[in-house]
Amino acid sequence: AREEEKAEEESSDLDSSDEEMDDSRMGNRRVEATNVSESKEPASSCQEKEVEEKKEMSEESGPARASSKKPSEPAIFISVDRLPEIQDSRLRLPVLAEEQVIMEAVRENSFVVLCGETGSGKTTQVPQFLYEAGYASGTGIIGVTEPRRVAAVSMSHRVAKEMNLSTRVVSYQIRYEGNVTSDTKIKFMTDGVLLKEIQKDFLLQRYSVIIIDEAHERSVYTDILIGLLSRIVPLRNKKGLPMKLIVMSATLRVEDFTENRKLFPTPPPVIKVEARQFPVSVHFNKRTPLEDYTGEVFHKTCKIHRMLPPGGILVFLTGQAEVHSVCRRLRRAFPFRRATDYSDEMKKFKKAKHKRTSLPRIDLDNYSALPVDEGDEDRLAGIDDEGSDLELGDDAADTEEKADPSLPLYVLPLYSLLAPEQQAKVFQPPPHGTRLCVVATNVAETSLTIPGIKYVVDCGRVKKRFYDRVTGVSSFKVSWTSQASANQRAGRSGRTEPGHCYRLYSSAVFGDFSLFSEAEITRRPVEDLVLQMKDLNIDKVVNFPFPTTPSAEALVAAEQLLVSLGALEEPPRTGRVKEMERARLSCPISPLGRAMASFPVSPRYAKMLALGKQQDCLPYVIAVVAAMTVREIFEDLDRPAGSEDESSKLAQRRARLAQMRRLWAGQGASLLLGDLMVLLGAVGACEFAGCTLKFCEENGLRYKAMLEIRRLRGQLTNAGVDLRVKCLLTEVGVQVVCLRQIVLAGLGDHLARRVQQEELLDPKWRNGYKTPLLDEPVYIHPSSALFKTLPQFVVYQEVLETTKMYMRGVSAVEPEWVPQLLTQYCHFGSPLETPSPWLCASTGRVKCHCTSTFFRCGWQLPAIEMD
Ligand code: CDP
Ligand code: MG
Fold first, then answer.
1. Spatial separation of the C-alpha atoms in residues 63 and 71, rounded to whole Å
2. What is the DSSP pairing of strand 435-440 with strand 312-316?
3. Which of 124, 158, 251, 426 gets mutated to test ligand 1 (max ligand atoms within 8 A of its CB)?
4. Measuring CA to CA, how many Å separate 81 from each of 128, 160, 210?
5. Less Cβ crowding at N or C end of the chain, within 10 Å?
6. pTM value?
């Protein structure tokens, strides 16, 4: 008892928040008060050693030398004043039963892996355990990373509510917003936010614990954070500033972390939380719809709602557009007119002070600004046909309870970019007498648990980023998900009672799914990651302890591209071959590279932005980069027409778009910026018109793409106030030349040269272009602004294969710019005799003309002046 008193005294000294100690909790635990994160070394001396430490990380010795085992670290206890109903619901969570085991493991080890079914309480409870154990009572706070913004925001609110603390104490930070204060003790953030913080303070001295949540998702930033923290934690321990890392994951393949000796020399303890899961009957479709799976999802959901007993429905789709389209159709199919218990909406309605005489029709459709998918109306007409191919499982039909066909359907969308207030709705009970139906992307797969779900409808697909090795451009594509993900989706229906999962594909198709989803890092080019790491002074990226290492080719290609963009210092060209090889893979970052690393776009575009800033034409470069990042800004008007009437309308619109393209391409000097001038003109015109749906429809622009461009421009400008592109009126010529040079500097490896008349051995090369990477000719598309001009040299954004290999995003290049701006890609010959060398008065050096060739393919370029 004496010891306890002493502990209390000491701990209350350390605890600045004046919380009362909870004696009852202390009884059965070891109590010795030490501040877990008290600094024993002045901060300045820590910083001095930092650079040295980062170097250590990339040294070949690799694995951390400091042992991950630490002597028992005692803790203090902070009481939390929870509301009784919260306390009750907490006690039902499986993770509560493991609190002792988890906290014991955390005290004894620097690294702990915790895995458990989604919904077992990991995300909401573990930060609370740590808080109560005093991990946030000193100078250090508890940090929790999430791969998704939705989760970071909603979990911080949930935990604040459970702990009865204000959001000043339990806060969140996502890229462009947050509510962190100096009182924050638990901070939820996206993994990207923590990575940026490491760039500022490598030892993360603000934190006493970091929880990496949803590690099974294997997002690139999560992987890198785990690699970095596997080194940072031992460094902190060595300095006497103890720090803990807890990796939390759903029950999926934790071996990638635990069995990786490069990452953790001694395997960290793995704590498994057994969750109660009710049986889920899985029903496969007999056939697999390949085209209109959203239609199939819609029909299946209607059918469940009409025929099956009460219970929430959770629908999995791949993206925001699909979610909206299905929500809209469901809302139309099951209109929701009785305003009995919609107090929320009523309040909002009254606030808005609408003047209406009759009872208001509650507008649950908050997305009227977005276009309805065409054809929806027609398909809606047929919803009452009960398609015989739609089978609901036998087990479902056996259930005693009967469905109530008049039950209204309360439809809610859920996806990452949805406004937080809208997201929060899915956690609240649906209005009395309605059935909840959440139409979600895969955010609902593991990050968020929606209460009361009994039926899951799974489209079996997922939207993923893909990388095209030929064009070097990434894109989002919809593909089949993995078996692990599909099972995870099914499990969402068995949380509170036995559930049913309807898979809209056959069991044979399921058998062909891969077992697990691949780690994102193996599916994409890594030049942006390599640049971020170099920005952290991790020069030898090959030695970095990745949970899954990207391929060696991918790393080499990334390093080469970054060197040629000038983001990395050039490796020495003399010395022993082996040393040169090694130096080639550990080039330090250059000042330009640092500037580039601060932009959230891929390095080619970041280079353009950095140059744009330097050349004082940033708004234009931002507009061009944003437009190039969005996949297609023009409406597809080449689609087949359904009727004669439609066909003539399409022809009219095609003519209008062609006219607008010509207008946006400009004349004279600006025409040479080519397709990028068209993009710039379109963005400028659309902004000038207020970025309305009407303007886009009239001029053949995709409204959604234009909204996305606007958002990205806002992000890149980091102000989002005046988004108008100023008209290129003054000195158009100079500005356009500047933009063309900037584009060349960024896309230098995408240079193409027109085939000369004398090289025309094969007619297929007529009007064709040669590129360094492809053996076949590529062409300028008839819709391109440069189709008639056919400049000698062009740079392109990507090559797209349709009927021919066409270059997209083409811009003309003056031949003499190539040896000047792309010296890294050129060979220079011996000095020319005429004109003879001369002395440069300003530099005092001898100058001469030298021949140059584009070394990748030996193209002759104009001779340039050299020292
Ligand atoms: O992280 P994990 O998946 O293990 O579980 P969690 O996210 O901590 O959720 C634990 C429980 O809290 C679940 O049963 C959720 O339904 C519930 N919860 C909630 O009711 N409202 C929220 N905003 C978040 C979670
Ligand atoms: Mg969780």
1. 21
2. parallel
3. 124
4. 12, 11, 24
5. N
6. 0.68
